[in-house]
Here is the input.
Amino acid sequence: MNNNSMSKQTNLRRARRGQTRRTIVQGALAGGLAGLGLAGAAPFSRARAAADASKWPKDAFSQKKQADAIRVLYGKTPEPSDKVSLEAPEIAENGAVVPISVSTTLPDVTSITIVVSENPFPLAANYPIPAGTSAMVANRLKMAKTSKVIALVESGGKIFSASKEVKVTVGGCGG
Here is the structure.
């Protein structure tokens, strides 16, 4: 018997016992976290993933118009604010990885959202902000074409915004 067929037999025996590579790695990671005293922080808990998924605003992310996505997510119209800072390049040479960051000096921020107006699904990101944490997020977004990027910050029951036009070039030529 060669090594390849022995490996396949070993994998088959493990699969029959419910041991797949995934479960072995998850168990090792959970054991390592438990050894560090972080047993509750195991990211692979199915119950934890299901709880997080139930909070995901699926309807808002499936909207095809910017105004509809904002309405479904917040039910309010945002008001422009100079206390919301949106950092984005004026020209993005590669629309597949456009760096965006949002921060604010507003108090009691509960969420930060990024909308890309001209994307097929404009709601690009929505971050819940836990109490007592810095209200700042950063991401690399995919942009279909030149578009207005809008940062929305929920604070004190109101929605505040900042926006910036980002030009996406074709092929990185700058034209």
